[in-house]
């Protein structure tokens, strides 16, 4: 051991206990590998959740109709010790979204029009899938079992609705789902224009991993360290208003899978 | 990674975790940021373990991954929240002989790549050639970037020896 190393070691001192857990690392590593295998097996359909789901939604979305089935069985607004079902998760996320939008845009109307959607695949067609109102009876068979959208169906949630803020009315498509684990930490590298924003303009928790935000004319997207992907856009690929609002909604800590 | 390789990965991580955290701390000067950096690198290591485990010097390779990951983060400040405890990169006050925090001020006063060179050369005991290879820079650059750190470190070490702390 050299003297320089000793000097540096003295500076480092005694390391505090770490939160790094090997089991958690292995679990996250396995999840990442599953995501890569899904992406590879799908022949590029899910090269990234952003590209695939955005394309599907923005090209193939249909407007929700009145009186359509609402996804949800039992609302879950507090943490539960048992596993959350997909329907419960969808309802929780919708409630979080509605609360966050109402908080960020006081006076907003149309929150009740947000309806859960699901993907229906049409192999060989363009686009290969479209959004239709959620239907529990056909949900599991809406996409071929060997397709990526089928595998992703339990952890990806979409809503369409029509909101009015400050006299401006627009249709919106909101997505909350899992970032495909191509590279959990490197995903934002795919988006060079990423910026950051936190509610209230704060600097965030010291040492906390970043929340990556992309705000464009058509889409606002937020990628969280826990793997939650949020994005919102106009279902017909028109300019998306209220980008500040959507960024604030997306980074709401309560919005997570 | 193949499941049969996981025990070896676990064993490696368990054995090297504290060492990697200390190296990361020397780069970040913040334990939260250091742990975040180490987690990121260990996840990348999980993905590439089957290949890395066959390297001639696995430790050096992983330290290179750690240092390069930190340098990448520095190049993309928007990608990650900057810890409040991290001091701005401004010229530091002269290091006082025997000042136990002087080494920290020294390291913080160095630019990112220069800091990486100092840590790899003088804490990880890597050679000029190894450091140059890991960072993708020339050996001459390693030598020149480590010169200032070496001079100051030498002074600190002599001071510490004189006080019988080493």
UniProtKB/TrEMBL annotation, chain A:
The keyword Transmembrane applies. The chain crosses the membrane at residues 38-63. It comes from the Bacteria. Keywords: Membrane, Transmembrane, Transmembrane helix. This is Uncharacterized protein. It comes from Catellatospora coxensis.
UniProtKB/TrEMBL annotation, chain B:
Belongs to the sigma-70 factor family. ECF subfamily. GO terms for cellular component: DNA-directed RNA polymerase complex. Signal peptide: none annotated. Keywords: DNA-binding, DNA-directed RNA polymerase, Sigma factor, Transcription, Transcription regulation. This is DNA-directed RNA polymerase sigma-70 factor. It holds the Pfam family Sigma70_r2. PANTHER family: ECF RNA POLYMERASE SIGMA FACTOR SIGM, RNA POLYMERASE ECF-TYPE SIGMA FACTO. GO terms for molecular function: DNA binding; sigma factor activity. Residues 17-79, 106-154 form the RNA polymerase sigma-70 region domain. InterPro entries: RNA_pol_sigma-70-like (IPR039425), RNA_pol_sigma-70_dom (IPR014284), RNA_pol_sigma-E_actinobac (IPR014325), RNA_pol_sigma70_r2 (IPR007627), RNA_pol_sigma70_r4 (IPR007630), RNA_pol_sigma_r2 (IPR013325), RNA_pol_sigma_r3/r4-like (IPR013324), WH-like_DNA-bd_sf (IPR036388). GO terms for biological process: DNA-templated transcription initiation.
């Amino acid at each position: 051991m050299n003297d320089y190393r000793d000097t540096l070691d003295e500076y480092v001192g005694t390391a505090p206990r770490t939160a790094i857990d090997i089991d958690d690392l292995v679990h996250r590593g396995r999840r990442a590998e599953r995501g890569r295998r899904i992406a590879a097996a799908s022949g590029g359909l899910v090269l990234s959740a952003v590209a695939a789901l955005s394309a599907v939604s923005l090209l193939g979305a249909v407007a929700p109709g009145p009186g359509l089935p609402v996804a949800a069985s039992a609302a879950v607004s507090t943490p539960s010790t048992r596993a959350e079902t997909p329907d419960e998760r969808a309802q929780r996320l919708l409630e979080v979204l509605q609360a966050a939008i109402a908080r960020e845009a006081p006076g907003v109307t149309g929150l009740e029009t947000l309806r859960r959607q699901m993907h229906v695949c049409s192999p060989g067609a363009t686009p290969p899938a479209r959004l239709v109102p959620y239907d529990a009876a056909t949900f599991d068979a809406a996409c071929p079992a060997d397709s990526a959208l089928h595998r992703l169906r339990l952890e990806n949630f979409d809503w369409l609705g029509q909101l009015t803020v400050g006299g401006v009315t627009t249709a919106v498509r909101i997505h909350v789902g899992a970032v495909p684990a191509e590279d959990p930490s490197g995903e934002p590298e795919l988006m060079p224009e990423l910026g950051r924003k936190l509610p209230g303009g704060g600097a965030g928790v010291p040492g906390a991993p970043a929340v990556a935000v992309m705000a464009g004319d058509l889409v606002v997207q937020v990628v969280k360290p826990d793997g939650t992907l949020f994005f919102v856009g106009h279902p017909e690929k028109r300019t998306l208003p209220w980008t500040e609002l959507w960024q604030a909604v997306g980074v709401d800590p309560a919005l997570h899978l | 990674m193949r499941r049969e390789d996981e025990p070896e990965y676990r064993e490696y991580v368990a054995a090297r975790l504290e060492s990697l955290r200390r190296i990361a701390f020397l780069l970040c000067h913040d334990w939260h940021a250091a742990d975040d950096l180490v987690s990121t690198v260990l996840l990348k290591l999980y993905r590439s373990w089957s290949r890395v485990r066959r390297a001639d010097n696995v430790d050096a390779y992983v330290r290179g991954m750690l240092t390069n990951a930190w340098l990448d983060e520095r190049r993309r400040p928007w990608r990650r929240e900057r810890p409040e405890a991290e001091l701005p990169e401004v010229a530091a006050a002269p290091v006082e002989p025997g000042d136990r925090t002087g080494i920290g001020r020294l390291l913080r006063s160095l630019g990112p790549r220069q800091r990486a060179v100092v840590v790899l050369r003088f804490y990880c005991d890597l050679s000029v050639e190894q450091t140059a290879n890991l960072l993708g820079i020339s050996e001459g650059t390693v030598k020149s970037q480590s010169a200032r750190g070496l001079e100051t470190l030498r002074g600190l070490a002599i001071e510490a020896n004189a006080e019988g702390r080493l």
